[in-house]
Write a structure and sequence with these properties.
The structure is a homodimer. By secondary structure, the first copy, chain A, is an alpha/beta fold. Helices cover about 30% and strands about 25% of the residues of chain A. Chain A contains 17 helices and 27 strands. In chain A, the strands form five sheets. Chain A has a nine-stranded mixed beta sheet with strand order 2-1-11-10-12-13-14-15-16, with helices on both faces. In chain A, strands 7-6-5-3-4-8-9-20 form an eight-stranded mixed beta sheet. A five-stranded antiparallel beta sheet of chain A has the order 18-17-19-21-22. In chain A, strand 12, helix 11 and strand 13 form a beta-alpha-beta unit. The first copy, chain A, is globular, with a radius of gyration of 24 Å. At the A-B interface, helix 1, helix 7, strand 16, strand 19 and helix 14 of A face helix 1, helix 7, strand 16, strand 19 and helix 14 of B.
């Protein structure tokens, strides 16, 4: 081998190599725009200088309690200023932030605290009751710190005697926070919702979080000083990394304790919001709000949505209301959305149905993802890009998780063959856009034929009386499984089971039509995803 | 040491770790927006699909000539489509791109070709004469490929029988280009202008180039689909990495063979240009163009400038003409501008002189730079942020070069103490913005007192008759050195040496005033920088 001159004495030194971390974005924002408004919450206002100082005080106070590399700090917080501070203050000590879904039950909370080996737990008083219950079950006994939201006072009995404001006040605003030793070091821990078995702890690192920030700016088409409304829970994939992204563009966080239509419209109008993210449920909330709560938007507002493709009617209504909707897709394992439905201006001239069909596709890899494909998981060969051949959606790149905490088997399985296996089934179109067709377990196999529950749902969604629907497999002696539809009707509309089945027969092959239609409220996760595993349980009980 | 659970079995795999490279941005752009206009040059139009295919063909043709890791491909090209292709095609083989300044003389070209050990040389016919001369001197004998620009035919005799179009045509558009083995691998080589001794070969890597792309998008406030006019030479720090940046935002390159006012105004108007970059000379070219060449701008155009702070009058004229000027600063060693004069909207209400004073400061670190400071190079202590204490500007971070090729001594010296030593002298203001005061060698030491040549120039620039000026040290028996001013007058204006000296005495301490004033054309580099070393040579000869 000849010597490569470009490898001779060109070493990594502190001058030309530093670990990437999103924490640096906050330090820069505070240095360059100290007086720019960083956080709005009720009547509270904090500048970047204040946000940075408070984050360092939190880090300092944690470090005084011996929190550092290898430790976990867990939080259960709504989208309040404390949650933003935790995204900086905890990793500033070298520790890992574990943000919990605020709708978890005590058993799951206890499992997560034990699995994460939580040393310190910060909890908003709204969740004090369930947290006390969880702590009674958990094996770990973390130091518990209560957050009292003075803007929206809560009256549940406190969990502990330690108060967040006093805790932060004990810290040093000049605390010399630590850069990660390596950009591969863990920054956060997010548990999957785990519809089967115990949830898995997804570990994020500083490198991925930093690249996700840059990628978010491109995907959301952000310029300097955006105003971002927190309709997406920050506990969900760390709010798709937007708590850090905002610092890179010196934006303003508009906190939102509860996702309610009046508060959203008010915030957009009063704070000149430019961007918000959320599940389809947020769009429904906005569109179905009483007229007196709705306010005119100051300009086109960017709405980034995930979890389910936005239906045609919703897209039209959102456009009418002044929102530009971008559809994205990802998993907890990919730091949130790593796939974006990149819109082509040429598609603007398509009719509404065609536009909705384009928008319903999940899209293409975002800038920081190296590769995205659909493969046969047995052969690890890419399926033909024909829009029809079903395969498993696979990811590869720097915004794929570090792995599952204390779960070598699941980590290895998920990365088998050098690709992250999403468990989602989809197709690839000739133009390289992917579309989800179902999660493996959501496929209904009837008489040996695969039925995509999404395909049946798409037909149902076009029925004028249907507000929301979920289709799952119902065990069947003859066919193995048949589709069973759960439906929420629009207010003021009626429809019978026979009406719905007749509608489906008009639009679907007979074997794909639901054998049963159940009218009831559909169980959803806190992020608005339909809980299909609950529907499956219900379907089993139906005669 | 307790075991850190966040380090147990969470390995780097191809699924979650990939080397960063800006080449991936082009692959993505071609996949997602194959029909988007990537390149405009005269009447030529190429889409992203075509740019990607041509880059892969170039890579394939190079690989067929055994070009790969460790090899250098040198180019001397104007801002034409071939130059963009070279930025992708060459690194796609694993080789390093060496882009030469098109105004170099034969001796320097020969030095660079030998030092870089050039295997293949691609040269535009405009430079055939000097290149033949250089090749006659050089020890290396690269395969030479001529570029014939059909849009702007050149009539110099060709350098070789190998034609670029035929060479590219021999390549495979489906060539499986190689990802770098490591993101620390070299991507390009840029020689410093080297005012003393031989030029140094600055090596860039894939990691830095990728991060510079993201950082450029933030600094230039780019959204999707910008239209970028090539007034900045691509041979200069690889055009500040914009040849790659444009692919990350799926922008359009508007090529420009020669930087002429009519062509610039025409391009802006016809192609709806959103961004351009360049030295102050480009601003002068635009502002001093004959009225009949000037065209109204379609919207505010972003102009990013470096090399010298824009004077107040120029800023006012640029604003009048419809440009928003952003001042940036960097060195070849920092991939181009790593410092940006981040503008505060509050400064919009300052008067013109105050705004110009703010804009004259070089600014703050850009997002991808980890740290920027001003230090006493002996003690490596930061100077007080008082806007007065002079020190050396120091950089640290991932957009600092890999080092100098085959120059361990210079590499080690430049990175001494874990910081890149810029050789530029400056101050830091209380708000963290830095301002250059001089390069070390541009300081004039008169009677033991330091005189900043920039300070004297600032006073001269305010004289109504002065178009351009450069101040350097002139040896002096009594004082050691005294300032000597070189001046270009505005057309239609006159001024005598005594007038100018009197003007300086009004505004400067007497010892800082020029002892001599010379009226003549000032020598400049091809990027518009005043060649102070030439002025110093001239000053020595003056009685």
């Amino acid at each position: 081998m000849p010597v490569n001159p470009f490898e001779q004495h060109l070493p990594k030194t502190p001058a030309n190599y530093q670990p990437m971390t999103p924490l640096s974005f906050l330090a820069r924002a505070a240095a360059v725009y100290p007086d720019h408004l960083a956080v709005i919450h009720g009547s509270l206002r904090r500048t970047y200088s204040e946000l940075y100082a408070r984050s360092r005080k939190l880090a300092s106070a944690l470090a005084q309690r011996y929190i550092g590399v290898g430790d976990t700090v867990s939080v259960m917080l709504p989208n309040t200023p404390e949650m933003i501070e935790a995204h900086y203050g905890v990793p500033m000590t070298g520790a890992v932030l574990h943000a919990m879904n605020t709708r978890l039950d005590a058993a799951i909370i206890a499992f997560q605290l034990d699995h994460a080996n939580t040393k310190i737990l910060i909890v908003d008083r709204e969740y004090a009751d369930v947290m006390r219950e969880a702590l009674a079950i958990a094996k770990v006994a973390p130091l518990v710190i209560d957050v009292d939201d003075k803007e929206f006072p809560q009256d549940a009995e406190r969990t502990s005697y330690d108060d967040y404001e006093a805790f932060v006040a004990s810290g040093d605003p000049e605390f010399g926070w630590r850069m990660p030793n390596d950009e591969w070091d863990a920054i956060t821990l997010n548990y999957t919702s785990g519809t089967t078995g115990n949830p898995k702890g997804v570990v994020y690192h500083h490198r991925g979080a930093t690249l996700m920030c840059y990628s978010n700016v491109l995907a959301a088409n952000m310029t300097k000083h955006p105003v971002y409304l927190w309709t997406l829970p920050m506990f969900h994939c760390n709010g798709w990394c937007f708590p850090w992204t905002l610092s890179s563009v010196i934006g303003t966080h508009v906190c939102l304790r509860w996702v309610r239509a009046d508060a959203i419209y008010e915030a957009i109008a009063e704070h000149d919001v430019t961007h918000l993210c959320g599940a389809p449920i947020v769009m429904s909330t906005l569109l179905n709000a009483p007229k007196e709560q709705q306010r005119a938007l100051p300009h086109v507002v960017e709405f980034v949505t995930a979890a389910a493709p936005p239906p045609e009617a919703v897209l039209a209504q959102m456009a009418n209301a002044g929102f530009n909707v971008t559809h994205v897709y990802g998993l907890t394992e990919t730091y949130g959305p790593a796939v974006v439905n990149e819109w082509h201006s040429a598609w603007d001239s398509l009719d509404a149905a065609q536009q909705a069909a384009r928008k319903a596709r999940q899209g293409v890899k975002c800038a920081a993802l190296e590769d995205l494909t659909v493969m046969d998981p047995d052969t690890m060969q890419r399926v033909p890009a024909d829009g029809e051949t079903l395969g498993e959606v696979m990811f590869r790149g720097n915004i794929v998780m570090k792995g599952y905490l204390k779960n070598p088997k699941a980590t290895d399985e998920s990365f088998a063959g050098g690709w992250f296996h999403s468990g989602d089934l989809g197709v690839m179109y000739p133009d390289g856009y992917i579309q989800l067709k179902d999660r493996s377990k959501d496929i209904i196999i009837s008489g040996g034929e695969n039925i995509s529950s999404i395909e049946v749902e798409e037909v149902l969604f076009k029925h004028p009386a249907i507000e929301l629907c979920g289709v799952v497999a119902k065990p069947d002696e003859k066919w193995g499984e048949t589709p069973c539809a759960f439906i929420e009707l629009r207010s003021g509309h009626t429809a019978s089971e026979d009406d719905i089945i007749a509608w489906c027969r008009e639009h679907l092959a007979r074997f794909k039509c639901p054998s049963r239609v159940i009218f009831r409220e559909i169980p959803k996760t806190s992020t608005g995803k339909i809980q299909k595993f609950r529907l499956r349980d219900m379907a089993k009980e139906i005669d």
